Amino acid sequence: MSLEDAKNQVDQAFTRDDLKGLSFENTFGGATSFLRRRYSKDLTHADIAVTGVPFDQAVTNRPGTRLGPRAVREASALQSPDAPYGWDIDPMSEFAIVDYGDLAFDYADVPAFPDTLTDHIRGILATDTASVVIGGDHYISFPILKAYAEKYGPVSLLHFDAHSDTWADDDFSRIDHGTMFYKAVKSGIIDPATSVQVGIRTTNEDNLGVPTIDAATVHEIGPVETARRIREVLGDRPVYLTFDIDCLDPAYAPGTGTPVWGGLTSAQAEAILKALRGINIKGGDVVEVSPPFDTTGATAIAGAHVATGIICLLAWNMREK
Predict the structure, then answer these.
(1) Could you read off the pLDDT tens digit of each residue along the chain, which spans 321 residues?
(2) Domains of the chain
(3) Is the dihedral of CA 124, 243, 306, 66 positive or negative?
(4) N or C: which end of the chain has fewer CB within 10 A?
(5) Contact at 8 Å (CB) between 287 and 137?
């Protein structure tokens, strides 16, 4: 692309005709769609839909993740407009990716939220489009997983986090970001034996049989061996990837509600994601980015890179098929 062509690219989030292709715009200007993708509710020709879920009414500590989708979109503009570095794939040029906007919901009607979100994701999946969701607190993964299980049957959960989120809670009317995977296992929408949790560094005596690679183990064995062990558990089953940003150490992601020291570095997370190329991923999310607790914006930057990594994994899977 010539310099003159680049100068003529303005607000590609609205003016782009083709859903594929790179965008060259000033990082500090223009509409902040994710990776400058076109905003659209039309998924007729889309392969991947990025959507925000600005919900944080399920947190146990600091709120603020309702502002995560906006911050992550803005941070995504900092990424190079070229193909993501080191992935050997250019998802923006090879696949049709849209920014589907945010879920609309009544913030004052919390009990209605889960079904509203499941319907939202169900509508995306009905068009054979994969979803990449930007949260929001981690509870949102539960309603999303319900829609994925409807389409694919019980899925394998690849879960990056400081916390297991499988603490016992048999009151399914409760909306809590620390118990939703307990409910997902008990509901039969994820298969615990072929799921895996990575980066855990808080105690839960009963993890429902989900294989775990805790943060200390990741530090000991390194990213490549971590990815090999993850692959061994997942096999070729359909996978949903959820990445709680507090999987990263607070040094790399301070802007989150429940930070825990001893976490993964951003370099470790990047290397693990890249080494997982080829897993049978169907969708994913990045959650718990809370901009009010990070004046530097580093947490949102990490969230944007994770979301891009999920897109790259989806693109690898789509290319293989």
Answers:
(1) 444 555 556 788 888 888 888 787 888 888 889 999 999 999 999 999 999 999 999 999 899 999 999 999 999 999 877 778 899 999 999 999 999 999 999 999 999 999 999 999 999 999 999 999 999 999 999 999 999 999 999 999 999 999 999 999 999 999 999 999 999 999 999 999 999 999 999 999 888 999 999 999 999 999 999 999 999 999 999 999 999 999 999 999 999 999 999 999 999 999 999 999 999 999 999 999 999 999 999 999 999 999 999 999 999 999 876
(2) 3-320 (3.40.800.10)
(3) positive
(4) C
(5) yes
Nearest 5°: the CA angle 307, 130, 87 is: 45
219: Cβ–Cβ under 8 A, 6 or more apart, which residues? Answer: 268
- 119 in the Ramachandran plot: left (φ > 0), alpha (ψ -120 to 50) or beta? alpha
What number of CA atoms fall less than 13 Å from residue 195's CA on the CB side? Answer: 26
Residue 53: φ, ψ to 5° = -130, 90
Is the separation of the CB atoms in 74 and 123 below 8 Å? no
pTM of the model: 0.94
Place of tokens 């901009």: 291
8 A C-beta contact, residue 243 and residue 286 = yes
Asked if 200 and 212 count as a contact pair (C-beta separation under 8 A), the reply is yes
Q: Within a 13 Å sphere around the CA of 20, how many CA atoms are in the beta-carbon half?
A: 9
- Tokens, residue 171: 């009151």
Question: In whole angstroms, what is the distance from residue 113 CA to residue 18 CA?
Answer: 33
Take residue 140 and report the two structure tokens written for it: 């949102």
Q: Tell me if 178 sits within 8 A of 60, measured CB to CB.
A: yes
Q: Which amino acid, residue 289?
A: V
Q: Which amino acid belongs to residue 156?
A: S
Do the beta carbons of residue 86 and residue 314 sit within 8 Å?
A: no
Compute how many other C-beta atoms are within 10 angstroms of the C-beta atom of residue 41: 9
Which tokens sit at 52? 């925000």
